[in-house]
Structure formats: C-alpha cells, structure tokens
Amino acid sequence: MLEEMLKNVREKSPLIHNITNYVTVNDCANVVLACGASPIMADDQEEVAEITSICTGLNINIGTLNSRTIESMLIAGKKANELHHPVVLDPVGVGASTLRTQTALKLLDEIQFSVIRGNISEIKTLALGSGTTKGVDANIADKVTKENIKEVVRFAQEFSRKTGAIIAITGAIDLVCNKEKAFAIENGHAMMSSITGTGCQLSALTASFISANPAHLLEATLAAVCTMGLAGEMAHTRLTRLDGNASYRNYIIDAIYNMTPQQLQEGAKYQEVLF
Amino acid sequence: MLEEMLKNVREKSPLIHNITNYVTVNDCANVVLACGASPIMADDQEEVAEITSICTGLNINIGTLNSRTIESMLIAGKKANELHHPVVLDPVGVGASTLRTQTALKLLDEIQFSVIRGNISEIKTLALGSGTTKGVDANIADKVTKENIKEVVRFAQEFSRKTGAIIAITGAIDLVCNKEKAFAIENGHAMMSSITGTGCQLSALTASFISANPAHLLEATLAAVCTMGLAGEMAHTRLTRLDGNASYRNYIIDAIYNMTPQQLQEGAKYQEVLF
Amino acid sequence: MLEEMLKNVREKSPLIHNITNYVTVNDCANVVLACGASPIMADDQEEVAEITSICTGLNINIGTLNSRTIESMLIAGKKANELHHPVVLDPVGVGASTLRTQTALKLLDEIQFSVIRGNISEIKTLALGSGTTKGVDANIADKVTKENIKEVVRFAQEFSRKTGAIIAITGAIDLVCNKEKAFAIENGHAMMSSITGTGCQLSALTASFISANPAHLLEATLAAVCTMGLAGEMAHTRLTRLDGNASYRNYIIDAIYNMTPQQLQEGAKYQEVLF
User: Fold this and answer.
1) CB neighbour list of residue A135: distance below 8 Å, 6 or more residues apart
2) For an interface test with A, which of B68, B97, B106, B192 has the most A Cβ atoms less than 10 Å from its Cβ?
3) Residues above pLDDT 90, as percent of chain B
4) Are C156 and C169 within 8 A, CB to CB?
5) What is the pLDDT of residue B275?
C-alpha cells in the first residue's frame, strides 16, 4: 500500500504551495523535490489565492508567522478549501506565544485541514485551546510511549472527530490517525531532533503525498511519516565518525531522493492500533 | 575568452547586492562567494539605495516578492541605473500570478536591465506581457530543442532589442543572446532541476560575472551560464550511490569554488547560433 | 575552564531566541543545535516578548533588518534585560547604510548587551558612532595583527567600559575582552571567510554559551570563539580535493556537533593580552 503512495508522488509530481517559515524553507523545498513533487513558496496576500489555484496541495507552517503572512495563510487556506485541495497545518511552536496559539486556532476555525501534524505538545495545545477535547482526558503525558499509546490515540481521534482532519503526532513513536483508524510508526532515529526542521520537512512531504493520493489521505499520511523516519534511519547508517547534524541533514534528504517504493514498503515499521 | 571572465571575478571580487527570495538566498550567497565575488543581501526600502551604491552590481529576484520588497527592488534598480551598475533580473515564476507578472513588467518598465535570466516560459510571459513581441512569432514551444533553436533565438533577440538587455534562457539547452549575437550552451545535467534554486544561483553568478567584466557583458553572461552548467556536470560525476539532491546541491557550489579558469575554458560547450 | 563552558551548554541545553537575518538563519539554528542548545526563531512584534520570556538567552542580528523586525529587536531586547537574560548583538554590516548604523546605535542605546560581536570595521563604526571613543585613538587599522593588537585591545576595552558589554572582534586574530581582561585567539582558518554566515553562526553560538554560563560571561564568550575557530580548523583537515565552501560549511557545523569538551580545551589557542 505505501509503495503505491510513493509511486503516485513520483508519477504525478504534484505542485505544492508552501507558506512556511524562513528557517527551514530551503530544506522543505528540497524535500518536496526529493520525493518527486514540485514546490512553490509564495506568501504575499496579493498572490496566494492565485498560486494555490495552480497547485494541487497547500502546506501551512506557522514557524515564523507575522501579521502579513497570517493573512496570507487564511486567504490561501480558504481558496484551497474552495477548490477541494488537500491542506496541511504545521502548528510550529503553538503554545509558545499567544500569537501562535490564537493564529493556529483561527486557522483551525476558518480552514478545513486534511492533516494536522505536530509533536504531542503542539497537538495538545491545539486540541485544548480549540475546546474540542471536552469529555476527553487531555492530561496525557508529553511523550508517546508504548504504555500510554492507546490513551494518546483516543485523544487524537477525538481531535480528529472535531476537526475532520487526520492527526499526525510525531516523536519517538509517531501516530497517524483519523477518527476511525490509527497507526503507530516506529521508524526514525533520535538524532533527527538535532537537525532544525525535520518536522517542517515532514509536513511538506505529507502535503506532497496527500496531493498525489487524494483518495487515500490516511495511507498517504502514513506513507509520508514512514518515508521521513526510514530516511532518517538510512541516513544514519551512512554517518562517518566526523559527520554531525549538518551532514545528517543532507543525507536524510538524499535518502528520500533515492528511496524506492519497494524500500519504503519493506522498511516501514508501522502497525494499526487496535482497541 | 571565458577564462578571462572568471579570472576577473576572482581578481576584482565585486560586491553584489542581492534582493532575492528567502528560499534560496543562502545558496545564492555561497555561490557568489564560490566564484570569488562577495554578496550583500539587503531589502529594506530605507537602505537599498545606499547598499547598491557601495556595490558593483545588483541582482533582483522576485521569487518571494511582497509589497515591501517590490518597492525596494524599484528603488535599488533605479539607483543602480543612475550609477551605471549592471543589473540582473530573475523573473521567478512570472505568469504564475498577476502580482508576479505585473511586478516583472513594472520592473522592466522602470529599470534598464543588463541581463534577464529565466526559463523559456518565464521569458515568454515577460516578452508577451510587455508587448514587445509584436510581429514576432511567440508561439514557440516551452522547451528549447535543436529543432526550434533558431526560432527561439529570433524571439529572444527581438526581446533583447526591445529591452536592451541580454537574454539568458536556461533549460536543457541554454541560450544567451543580445540583439546581434547568440550562443547555445549544452553544459549542465538534468538532475540540476531536482535542486531548488539552481536558476536563482545562476542569476547571482551572472551578476557577479558581469560586474567584474562590465565591458564584456555578453561574454560574461555566457561564462556564468557555462560555469553553472559545467559545475553541474562535474558535481554529478562525484555523486555516490547514496547521494541525492541535497549532496548534489553542495557539490555544485563546491565545483564552482574549485573551478579554474582553464577548466572552464576547456569544459565549456557552447557555440554561436548562426543564421 | 573552556571545557566546563561547553559541558554546561550540553547539560543545560538553553533555549535561545534568535532575531536574525534570513540568509544564514538555518545555519544559525543548526549551529545552536550542534553545540547542544535549542533555537527558536521568532520576529513578530506581537510575540517576541513572550518568546524571549520562555528562553534563556537572546541573539539579535541585524543582517537583513527591516522596519518590522527592528521594532521586534527593541521589544525583545528590553524584555530580555528586564528578565536579566544575556543578550548578544551582531551588528552585521553596520556602516554600510544609515539604517544599519542608526539601528545599531539605537539598539546600543536602549538595550544592555552582554556581548557585542563583529569584525573590526563593524566594531569601529559602532564605537565611533556611539561617541564612546572620545579620548581613545580609534584610527586603528581595519585588521588586527600581532603588531597592533594592544592598540586594538585598548580601543575595545574603552568600548566595553562605555557599553558594559563584552566585546568580541573576530578576524584572522580574534579578540575577546571586557574592561579588565582581554584574550587573543588564534584558532580558525582563512577559508572560513568564503562561507556566508560564519560570523552569524558564532554570534548564535555565543548566545548559547553565555546562556549556559551566566556567571562566567567572559570565559563563555572566549569558549564560543575558540569552538568556532577550532571547528573551522578541524573541518578544514577533512576537506578533499573536490570539496569547496559548501561542504566546508557542513563540516564546520559537524565539527561543532562532535566536539568534546576535552578537544576544545586542548585545541583552543588563546592567551591573555597583558600590558
């Protein structure tokens, strides 16, 4: 199944509109290219609706948001919804400032997202802030473990039910779920957190995968998460004694570029979470 | 001839003012350094005239334009014209939005460019939008081939006549021409299109070359295009089985850094297009 | 001593707020991670005070300043002062435009900096512009040499006295001083100047080191300068015949990632400047 997801990205080469932060934007563009899609970065209010219209999918990342780009995110998101384009939200650092929290909640309010991807703290902040967790125990820990995974899945599925979006929570164990189905993924390497922007890159990758597989959003998101994690593993085996986080960054993107659908299929370590 | 062009960049180390996009700006700065010139990036309206004044050349790239930076481009371009500094235009994505098209046309209207560099679609959009192609068959294909090259050259030379700028059209076959003379270049590698920003990098490189060779703008542009393509070839021979687009990006800049004038002279694959 | 400084960065992993330019921001983030600290980049006026409040230190870099971000720098700097967080100023290109000079002087006026890091020209411009050098011979050369080093130290110490900040002047020979003590550092490699942003990276590194060692600001700054220079040396030994400035950039960050406190202690080449 994952095999097909990656094949479709390579074959269809969807054009992805990214409104993203200036810290990791170059890596995001190169990751989109590495998986076989094409990136466009544009964030001016005057052009985002038109740019989104010529694209297949939209990726919104609030990493270095400002008043100018927040407005652009809203315009682009609404246009994408109107055109039924898949839209990803990466709520970078939500909870770290009122501006981030309010912006993320406003985006949730006004835009229908296909996928929301963040770490557990970001997703918790969003879910609590948006008041969607009533009746759900949101006092889950800030780390997903084998012990608390079912609890986190229940929480994420409740959030998925309220938002209509697939929820992707990434960390040592990654979770991908919609309201009905949930997968736990164990690909990846701890050293990925020593590179800036692996999360941003995954969001851009996810936008590429779901845009090429619009009828299989859950599987496409799962495939994107496995691709990123597997690339992190493959890149890690390549590190020499002198390599550090900068070379690792390059090797991960390289690994995505070289990954075959078969490698993804064989290397993906995921399983459905069953209750 | 090309030998001299690169030698002059290394000897004079011209300071290049870049108003460019935030996606590929770091690569542009490192490419300018790799060829022997020095970069300054500055885009605030309050300072661009002064910054341009202390530089030797200006590179304007509309990749992530916004209302603030568009104004800065106009101010800097006019100041550069006043000081007779060479100016490059990279009309990234022109045609993808009204804002891009109108901005590029306004820039063309108000600034005298020394070189306009883009892919064939961008140059066509510009030429048609600026109404300069009357009487010229602009229904050329979106790809330059051995079959249609003379047609594309006629079109580009007409655009050069109207704008007074050297036109550089890059793709599988690159074209560099002024109204009188045209060169076709066959350096480069298809994999370069899997890296974000090789076009932006070439524009920054072109600004460096023409600034160091103000009396030989056509040859300097040709040298920049050959340098970029040859670097793409040399870097490609260096790729291992595990390398992908991220390592390739680094290797291309490395190859420019290490390229000797003699290597450029010997590796450049260009010929004049004669009618 | 330097050993401890690096150990503390790794153990405490301070969160560093960076308001910096979009050219080298990704490298700054990866360098902060490489040394063991954590970066946040945020520059909107609405959130910088809150972001600075959750961080341990602040790094202000005026490389691509604009009216929006200048205001953010002032807000964040004042908040950091209020909270007694260490603050670094990197006055990139001060003197190249009135906007840069006036902004840097305004920042100096309104914010108490812990460390000001720049090249000799930048520091001279700042010192002269701020009128702090009265009675001091500021006609020092634009290069620090073994011959003029005492003269430069006297000048830098006078500036330190006026600003209350540690002054770090980097070049072939680096200087780090407060009003009482001065160190000359001979780590580094000339090729570092062929990479964009090694100065910016050092400022981000300095913010990381002083935030983890608040009781030893001078030693922490010295340690950061030695770390950057030593990484430049170690990375240089790793270069192959085909590597250029792009690979060198990666290798330097890699070297910081892999540097042990003991390596720093043994590789640091500094001595106190005594009168």
Assistant:
1) A158
2) B97
3) 92
4) yes
5) 87
Q: Is C204 on the interface with A (CB under 8 A)?
A: no
Strands A166-169 and C270-272: unpaired
The answer to whether residue C240 scores a pLDDT higher than 70 is yes
- Using CA atoms, how far residue B7 sits from B11, B52, B222, B225, in Å, is 6, 24, 14, 15
> Where does B12-114 show beta strands of DSSP type E?
15-19, 38-41, 57-61, 87-90
Calculate Rg over the CA atoms of chain A: 17
Residue C188 has pLDDT above 80, yes or no: yes
Q: Is the pLDDT of residue C143 over 90?
A: no
Mean pLDDT by 10-residue block, N- to C-terminus, for chain B (275 residues)? 97 98 98 98 98 98 97 98 98 96 97 97 89 47 88 96 97 97 98 97 98 98 98 98 98 98 98 95
The strand pair at B57-61 and A270-272 is best described as unpaired
- CB–CB contact C24 B26 (8 Å): yes
Look at residues B164, B6, C255, C103 and name the one whose alpha carbon lies nearest to residue A243. C255
Arithmetic mean of pLDDT over chain A: 95
Residue range of the domain that includes C165: 2-272
- Category of A167 on φ-ψ map: left (φ > 0), alpha (ψ -120 to 50) or beta: beta
Q: Who among C22, C99, C194 is closest to B47 (CB)?
A: C99
- Asked whether the beta carbons of residue C251 and residue A245 sit closer than 8 angstroms, the reply is no
Instruction: Note whether A43 contacts B: Cβ–Cβ < 8 A.
Output: yes
Per-residue confidence at A142, pLDDT binned at 50, 70, 90?
A: confident
CA-to-CA distance for A40 and A37, rounded, in angstroms?
10
Residues linked to residue A117 through DSSP beta bridges, in sequence order = A168
| CA nearest to A190, candidates A207, A175, A171 | A171
Residues of A annotated as binding site for ATP?
A: 117, 170
Angle between helices B198-212 and B217-237 (to 10 degrees): 140
- The pair of three-digit structure tokens given for residue B270, joined into one six-digit string: 């260009």
Q: Does residue A140 have a pLDDT over 80?
A: no
Query: Mutating which of C22, C25, C38 best tests the A interface, going by the most A Cβ atoms within 10 A?
Result: C25
Q: Which single residue is written with the structure tokens 């961008």?
A: B122
For residue B137, what pLDDT is reported?
Answer: 43
- The predicted complex's ipTM stands at 0.95
> Residue C106's domain is classified under what CATH number?
3.40.1190.20
Q: Does the distance separating the beta carbons of B41 and C64 come in below 8 Å?
A: yes
Structural domains of chain B, count: 1
Contacts of B250 in chain A (CB under 8 A): 250
Contact at CB, B64 and A42, closer than 8 angstroms: yes
User: Confidence band (pLDDT; 50, 70, 90) for C135?
Assistant: very low
CB B207 within 8 A of CB B264: no
Report the sign of the C-alpha dihedral through residues B105, B106, B108, B113, in that order: negative
What are the tens digits of pLDDT across the range A44-55?
Answer: 999 999 999 999
Testing the interface with B: which of A31, A33, A55, A200 to mutate, by most B Cβ within 10 A? Answer: A33
Q: How far C164 CA lies from chain A's nearest CA (Å)?
A: 31
DSSP state of A171: S
Side-chain half-sphere CA neighbours of B219 within 13 A: 16
pLDDT tens digit sequence for C31-54: 999 999 999 999 999 999 999 999
What is the DSSP pairing of strand B174-177 with strand B166-169?
antiparallel
Radius of gyration, CA atoms only, chain B: 17
